[in-house]
Structures are given as C-alpha cells and as structure tokens.
Amino acid sequence: MNNHYLVVAIVSLLILLVNVSTSCAQRQVYIVYLGEHRHSDSGKQTWEEIEEMHHSYLQAVKGSKEEAKACIIYSYKNVINGFSALLTPQEAATISEMEGVISVFHSHPTKSRLHTTRSWDFISLLEANWDATRSPINQDRFLRRAGYGKNVIVGVLDSGVWPESQSFNDEGMEPIPSSWKGIARMVWLLILLIVIGARYYLKSYEANFGPLDPKLDFRSPRDINGHGTHTSSTIGGRRVPNAAAIGGFGYGTATGGAPLVRLAIYKVCWPIPGQTPAEGNTCLDDDMLAAFDDAIADGVQVISVSIGGNTSRPYIQDGIAIGSLHAVKRNIVVACSAGNSGPTPFTVTNVAPWIITVGASSIDRVFSSPVLLGNGIQVQGETVTPHKLSMMYPLIYAGDAEIPGATNNETSGLCLSGTLSKELVQGKIVLCLRGYSLNVEKGLEVRRAGGVGLILQNPVDGISISVDAHVLPGTAVLSNDSATILNYIKSNKNPTARIVCARTVLGSKTSPFMAGFSSTGPNALEPNILKPDITAPGLNILAAWSEATSPTKLFDDNRVVKYNILSGTSMSCPHVAAAAVLIKATHPDWSSAAIRSALMTTATQTNNLGLPITDGTGDTAATPFHYGSGHFRPDKALDPGLIYDANYTDYLLFLCNYNSTVPSIDPSFTCPDDFPSPSDLNYPSIAVSNISSSGISIKRTVTNVGGGASVYKVRVEAPVGYTVEISPETMNFSSVGQRESFNIFIRPGSGLGNGYAFGWYTWSDGIHSVKSPIVVSSQ
Predict the structure, then answer these.
(1) Which residues of this protein are catalytic (predicted)?
(2) Run of H or E including 655
(3) Helix or strand or coil: residue 533?
(4) Helix, strand, coil proportions of the chain in percent (round to 5)?
(5) What is the 8-class DSSP label of residue 681?
(6) Could you give the maximum distance between any two Cα atoms of the chain, in Å?
(7) Nearest Cα to 532, choosing from 328, 775, 776?
C-alpha cells in the first residue's frame, strides 16, 4: 500500500515538473521599454509608485498582482522607464499594444557578448611622427594638460574587476569627487580611491540560466573572466613598472590612458553554463539597462561598453542603444566596440549615432616566433608562449594524424578535441588549420595527443595575428603561409621543423594597420550614418588581468598572471573612452557630441611611414568603412578648432525617421511634420546612399572652439565619379562659440556602378585641420 502511494506521488510529481518545465519553456525574459520617467510638477515619482505602474502592465496579462510581482525581474527607476519580466510571446505581444509602451523585445540570453602598455606609448610616438614639432620625450604633455583625467568618472560595463591589481593602486589619489552619487561598497574588504564604485547585475542571467554556479564566477563585482579588468586598466590603470604578460612578453611600464580617472564598475557579463570561460561571457540586455540606469544616476561622465552582438538591431530594441540615448541626454559620452566579425561588410554593430563606435587596429609591437622548416625555409609566426623548442622535431599535418572516423571533410585538420591519434602525434609538431574551436583549445588537443608543439593557421586572413599563450610550444603563421608548410609536409618523406623562441619586437613597420577581425561598414541599420566612427589600438594589447583565471581561461590551464595580452574591438574601445576622459577633463562643458567630433575630425588616415593605413591584408588601403574618420590622436583632439555639435533633440529628430512613438520616449517632444533626413544629422562624417542623378544637398554646422578671430577655408577630395561643391568655401569666425553653417552638394557622374566611393573635405585655418570623410553610392 505504501509503495502504491509512493508511486502515485512520484508520478504526480513528475507530471507537475513536466507542466512547470513546459510553462517555463514558453516564458522568456522580455524588456518593456517606456521611455523617460514622467515627473510631474509636484516632484519625482517614488520608487513604490514606479513599481506599482510597472506591475499594472503585468497584472493586465497575468491576471493577479501576485503573479505580476513574481514574474518581474528589473524595474528601472532612476532615468530609464521600463521593466523586464518573464513573459510568454503572447503576453509580450499584448503588452506591446498597450498605451505608453514604446517597444517590447526579447532579452536574448546569448546575443550580446564581450568583444574580445605599449599601446599608449605607440600613440605618443605616432603623435610625434605626425607632428614634426613634437618630440616623443614630451608624450606626457597632453596628459598634464588634461590633469591625467583627474576626477572624471568612467562607468565600465563589463565582467567586473580584480581590485587587487597594482593597476588600481590608489596611492596619492585625492578623496572621491563630490560629483559621485553612487554607493561605495566594501565588496572586497577594501575601498579604493580609483575604483570608487562596483555593482553587479545578475537577475536576468539567473532567470535564463538558473542560479549562478559559484565555481564559474563570483556573486559580486569581482572579475573571474579577466576581460573587465583588462578594459578598466586600459582606461584608468596607474603606472606600473616591470609589467609583462606570461613569459615576460610586452615587458615595460603598464598604464591606462587616464591614470587619475575614477572607475565605476558595473558587472553585467557572466559565463554561459556548459561552455568554457574561453568561449566568452554573455551580457543580457535587461541586466545592461539596469547598469545604464544606475550609472547615469551615479554621476559618471563617460561610459565604456566593450559588448555587442554580431548584427545590428533596431534602436528601440537594443539595450545598449537605449541606455546610451538616456546617458547622452545628460552629456555622458558613450564609447562602444564595433564588433569582431570583420572583414565581412555590413558587420559593424553599436551603430546608434549618439554612440562613439570604435574599430580596432595594430600597434608597432610584434611577438616574433618563426617556424624553421627542415628544408631551410623560415616562415614568420607570432606567439606569447614562453615554452622553447631547441631542436628540430618531426612535423605532421593534423589531417594526417586523426583517429579514423573522428572528423569529416569539413573538420579534418582542425585539431578539434578528441580527434588526434596519440600513436601518430606523439613527439611531433602538429600543423593545425583554423576553424570550429578556439586557438588555445587546439593546443590543448595537441598536448593531449602527446605532441611537442603547435603551428596554427591564423584564423583571420591577412597580416594581423592575435597572439595566444598556448599550453605547449606554439606559434601562429599567416593563413597563406600555412600552405607553404603543408606543401613541405606533403612533399617530404620525413618533414621536420623547429619553433623559434618568441621575442618582443618594438618599432614594427608598418603601423597601424586595421585588424582583420574588426567589423566593417556599411551600416546595415542606417547606411546614411557612417560607422565605425574611429579606430584605436586593439591588436595584442597588454593590460591588467584577473588572478582568478589563467591567461587562456581554459579549465586545464592552471597558470596565473597579473597582466595578459588580448585582442579585439573590446580593447580599442577603452582607448577611446580614455581619450574622451582627457577631453572631458580639459573641456568639462563640452557635450558628448563635441567630444566625439573632436576625436573624429583630428584623426589620421596615415601610418607611421606617412602612407595610407591599410586593411588587414596589408596590401590594400583601408577605407572609412574600416576606420571611420581614421586612427584617433588624443593630443590633437584637445584642440580641434571646430566641432560638429548635436544634442538630445537632434537624436529624437533622427529617430523620427523610424519610430512614430518618439513622443513617448520624451513627453516634452513631438516629431514635426517635416523632420531632417538621417544624412542631415549634424555628424562629423557624411554618408549618403543611393544618390539620384540630380544630386543631394546636405547641411552642416560647426562651432568655433579654437580661438578668437580665425578664417577657415575648405579643401575637397571628391569621391571618384562624383562632384562635391561646398558653399561657402570660406568661414570667418570672430569669437569662441560662434556657429557657422555650410552646404555640401554632391552629384554623381554618368556610368557609375553600384559600389561606394570615398572622399574627404577639410576645413583649415592654417593651425587646425578639421577633416571629414564622405561616403557615397548612387542609384
């Protein structure tokens, strides 16, 4: 009898679990965006009133207040008005039709990911090369002028921070500035004067993946991934002598771009269960929106976001775009990574025109580790692996050393986990082709099979190699050069090779060039806004690291480092954020658009040899689709001469082109019957797609910030096949702050193809050069 009841109870429990599982499977996290908070004349709404309003939307579809409260995840209360909740698709669709709702969109659990020293020295050396009047000895000149970013507060949305790093040593720093309104929490038993705030956002992550596994991450702002520590120290790390990656690579003084800046950490990225940390974290939209809402209220002046997806989304369905818009309304500068899906066209992300979108390029440092073949041929390679091979070893191609049936035509030769034969690999160097797994995982497989070394085909075509700290001797060779090695293997009965010990080489010519992985335009969401805006160092960047993880982030790698080398637009973004800090410190009254303009119009399109910056192949000149306005020059950006300014209202007018609910974003604004086209946004670059044969006229307005009386004359480099006329050709300024407008008329010639053409126009007063790209295509 007891057994009977036990069976019934178990069956009933299983049925209940199935029902619950089915219900949960149907429910997903959705963000309900309601725009700005509407504050009445009597004052701000209380948090209880805001929550009650948000619950009312949910109660309408859930049926009860209790269930409405149970399903809500975030209620945004500071600046952003909205909430996130567990909803079925039908419930989300119903709420989207309710009054006051601007958008309802799924907070996808894996759509947004992390886009993942010498770089600042390189920038200073480039400044010296570009400006014959400047010596590298004076590389601190602009830092001193900007007070090293003193008392500017940067919010960093990332994977947290490792506060014990020497890069965050606060010795000699003054008290926390009064502009900080956030919470100083003793989350790591110490309060720092550089990392002045730290929060973490976990609710949506746990709603999607269940409780955080404490073996995978800390339930705190502490960084177990390393990425957030790396980006934060790139922005504001103190000067640390004798810093280096594992093996001593990149040895020198590590520093952030603004060493006296204050950092506020907002941990929004977390490990995906079932994946290795090396495969990257996920960052959910509603967690990020909560971080934006807090950062704005906390009083940050710059926000750095090295996060994004692989594709662009509509502005009002993109958590980063929404959060950034509310930040920019308060003149907070927002810098975002452009993405790592290049060089494929139309891959650039974070394309909202109120964001500074940053591509990635190289610096003048390489980590040379050639491969010496048995026939005497030397193939160039790069690595930051400290292991040495002092003699020649047998060499084998992975495709010839696989366990039968472990691979197919697509996966053969890739050194995927569990595919290599120990009998065939033991004691040999293995050539692995790219694809399907991480570079460092291929090295792990070679080691498992008993190999002594790894030669890796570079995952990206061209000359940009992202180096790795492999778990055994290993180096990466250019993708084309892997064919040379494979031909040698196939044509020799007993092929041999040696991987030469790696060394750090400075002063590499030619630099910078665009990283092959850096996402490129055209802008898939709005081709009449050029993106990315600018490029900065993002290839093989040394910065601080979390001591809770290894340099490879593999579970089987037990090495611990204080500094590590990473590549990605994740690394270039904080460089530009730091430059924005220095401009903000120098010109505290400048708008976010003015700071972006200063960075863009003073950028360069030439390398350290005075030649055009190339794309990732090294052979072809890059275009504005690769680097926007060019490579940033922080020193020049402090004194740009003229700036293209824009404000929150300009961005709302821009949104009128797409969204009839703009009035709901801000109750004080209504789209006029006649609003400007996207090309007419007062942007520091010009992009026009599908110009008709009659041409197009575009207006721009500049503000004098360079001095009193000045006369600017324009010089035009028209796109091939087009005529460009600018009127007037001369602008006279008598005072700082004076604004002048001009018109740009662009007309296509006959017989043009469907492709894009590129040109430039430059305003100059003999001291300042204010340069803007022109990107056009015709019908």
Answers:
(1) 158, 227, 570
(2) helix 648-655
(3) coil
(4) 25, 25, 45
(5) S
(6) 100
(7) 775
Cβ partners under 8 Å of residue 368, min gap 6: 380, 381, 382, 500, 502, 503, 505
Beta carbons of 82 and 76 less than 8 angstroms apart = yes
Q: What is the DSSP letter of 358?
A: E
For the residues 581-597, what does the mean pLDDT come to? 96
Residue with tokens 């290993």: 474
Count of other CB atoms within 10 angstroms of residue 369: 23
Place of tokens 């890796």: 456
How deeply is 403 buried, as exposed, middle or buried, from its count of CB atoms within 10 A (0-12, 13-18, 19+)?
middle
Catalytic member of 54, 227, 230, 631: 227
Q: Would you give the DSSP letter of residue 2?
A: H
Q: Is the pLDDT of residue 749 over 50?
A: yes
617 vs 595, which has greater pLDDT? Answer: 595
Sheet (strand 686-691) strand order: 686-691, 769-778, 757-764, 710-717, 730-733
Q: Residue 643 carries which side chain, given as an amino acid letter?
A: I
Q: Among 19-33, 206-220, 694-708, which stretch is predicted with the lowest mean pLDDT?
A: 19-33
188 has pLDDT over 80: no
Q: What whole-number distance in Å separates Cα of residue 769 and Cα of residue 602?
A: 7
Q: What's 567-627 look like in SS3?
A: CCHHHHHHHHHHHHHHHHHHCCCCCHHHHHHHHHHCCECECCCCCECECCCCCCECCHHHH
The answer to whether the Cα torsion of 555, 557, 560, 562 is positive or negative is negative
Query: Which pLDDT does position 667 carry in this prediction?
Result: 75
Strand ranges of the sheet holding 80-87, from the earlier edge strand across to the other edge: 72-76, 80-87, 28-36, 103-106
Spatial contact of 236 and 577, defined as CB atoms under 8 Å apart: no
Q: Which two tokens stand for residue 546?
A: 């979390």
3-state secondary structure 726-744: EECCEEEECCCCCEEEEEE
How crowded is the C-beta side of 230, counted as CA atoms within 13 Å? Answer: 29
Q: Angle at CA 134, nearest 5°, toward 335 and 121?
A: 50
Which letter, b or e, does each residue of 646-676 get, where b requires 16 or more Cβ atoms within 10 Å of its Cβ?
bbbebbbbbbbeebebbbbbbeebebeeeeb
Of 121, 158, 298, 645, which residue is the catalytic one? 158
Burial 185-224 (b: 16+ CB within 10 A, else e): eebbeeebbbbbbbbbbbbbbebbbeebeeebbbebbbbb
Under 8 Å between Cβ of 478 and 588: no
Q: Which one of the listed residues 124, 518, 570, 710 is annotated catalytic?
A: 570
For 113-137, how does the pLDDT look when each residue is reduced to its tens digit (9 = 90+)? Answer: 776 544 445 445 445 454 444 444 4
Inter-residue contact 277 to 549 (CB < 8 Å): yes
DSSP 8-state secondary structure symbol assigned to residue 108: -
Rounded Cα gap, residues 592 and 665, in angstroms = 20
Cross-strand pairs, 153: 262
User: Looking at residue 134, what is its pLDDT?
Assistant: 43
Annotated catalytic, 158?
Answer: yes
Beta bridge pairs of residue 499: 371
Compute the chain's Rg from CA coordinates.
27
Query: Of the ranges 144-148, 250-254, 566-570, 659-663, which one carries the lowest mean pLDDT score?
Result: 659-663
Q: How many C-beta atoms lie closer than 10 Å to residue 253's C-beta?
A: 13
Give the model confidence (pLDDT) of 81-123 as tens digits.
999 999 999 999 999 999 889 999 998 887 777 765 444 454 4
CB 459 within 8 A of CB 342: no
Q: How far apart are CA 119 and CA 365, in angstroms?
A: 9
Beta strands in 369-421 (DSSP E): 371-373, 378-379, 381-382, 393-397
At 662, is the pLDDT very low, low, confident or very high (cuts 50, 70, 90)?
A: low
Mean pLDDT of 632-654: 95
Q: Is the pLDDT of residue 335 over 50?
A: yes
Residues in the chain: 779
